[in-house]
Amino acid sequence: MARVKRMERVVALTKQLVDHPYQLFSFTYFCKKFEVAKSTLSEDVLAVRAGLEAYDLGRVETLAGAAGGVRFIPCHSEKANEEFLTELALQLAEPERILSGGMIYMTDLLFKPQLVMRLGEIIAQRLRHLEPEYIMTVETRGIPLAVFVARAFNIPVVMARRVGQITEGSTVSINYVSGSSKQIQTMALPKRALPSSARVLVIDDFMKAGGTARGMAELAEEVGAKVVGKAFFIATQEPEKKMIDDYTALFVLKDIDTENRKIDISPL
Amino acid sequence: MARVKRMERVVALTKQLVDHPYQLFSFTYFCKKFEVAKSTLSEDVLAVRAGLEAYDLGRVETLAGAAGGVRFIPCHSEKANEEFLTELALQLAEPERILSGGMIYMTDLLFKPQLVMRLGEIIAQRLRHLEPEYIMTVETRGIPLAVFVARAFNIPVVMARRVGQITEGSTVSINYVSGSSKQIQTMALPKRALPSSARVLVIDDFMKAGGTARGMAELAEEVGAKVVGKAFFIATQEPEKKMIDDYTALFVLKDIDTENRKIDISPL
């Protein structure tokens, strides 16, 4: 390759890092790719870090030692995240989102990739200390959020299904009580999807009584995995007593006043 | 903001562009954000373009005029894409993926965000001329791929469901014949999900006879939308006659030899 200017190299380095959140690249990998000495690469990494920090676009971490390298961690200031969520709460509170049964229409928002990508990054930023190795969700509406939380952590998603599918080999299944409807339902996971002792973060779009989330946690534990956390796009304020203990949510839905067509929802 | 070095500004510009594929940013937006004159910004944009092109990491387009601006288009050389798909075909052909019923286990791959992101970019690159405004898929396994194709095009996803859900308001539904099982099934779409005359690209993970894809196309047309294309992760070679006409696929599955435990699959 012809000699490339430093600026072009730093652009390429930025793209590779930010496109692969949490992925650790060895210095050797980049030195070879860019045909530069380690000292030159170190300066380039510092430039990327400075540029991202100056504009609140995330953090670059370097890890020393033989197993070391460089990686990008998506994050924004608390203020920027709050502004983003407050703006989104206004959209969620639009009266035409009111559906029968005390629910709100939100599928359109949960299927906008740019928006969900940011939500996934916010959840990952808040739950980084949990060090999950897998994201678990249940079909269907929480899948995009689960995928973008997983992207931010550079880990895979496993999906539980409401019924076992013949296309996925042998499955483990459990019966669980849906907290809202009090009905007994079945949830299944392909046996090969989750290694035992894996650290699992449960993600779903909506949590009311917590029955589905509890089902997922039980299913994960059934295959020997460890549930390290549960996070939701929206959790309702009522019922106050949930079927799961610790959880986090991006929004709390306090009330839907169908008569006056008002939705009371705010970032948590 | 204190005066920031050019290098840092170019890093931030790179991040913003590559994080928002296809999104057109006005020059004014960046001039204001970076507090620079338009001539300076133009030089910065040229630097980002040169860096990405030098390492085959995508393209930066500038559009002139009042409605103009700058945007990032994810793409790689045909050679790089072919290498990526050939590598993935080897993984798909692992004998332990053989399931009963002439299917292969691929959910693990379809739920790895980094991998699916690249697949989404390849599909978007190949189908750019179709100019879709919406991606349509049906629950469940094709959702991550649909979301990443949508991300690459900067458009939303609409999801058809096998049964109408009470949480999504009024729905349009159709009955369709599943090509493989010959059974009559129902598929539904929330009425508000898709505006009429929208240009829709149908995405799914697996296509055998094409019954499900045909159902999606009919459902889209039922609400007045226009289906501009259909793309799949895997299409089977048999049956040769499909229930849909034009389509593209990343892989063609030629044969599963359960006796000798061999999967014959290759990039298309």
TrEMBL record, chains A, B:
One of its GO terms (biological process) is negative regulation of DNA-templated transcription. Pfam families: Pribosyltran, PuR_N. Residues 111-258 form the Phosphoribosyltransferase domain. Belongs to the purine/pyrimidine phosphoribosyltransferase family. PurR subfamily. Keywords: DNA-binding, Transcription, Transcription regulation. The keyword Signal does not apply. This is Pur operon repressor. Homodimer. GO terms for molecular function: DNA binding. It comes from Phascolarctobacterium faecium. It comes from the Bacteria. The gene is purR. InterPro entries: PRTase-like, PRTase_dom, Pur/Pyrimidine_PRTase, PuR_N, PurR_Bsub, WH-like_DNA-bd_sf, WH_DNA-bd_sf.
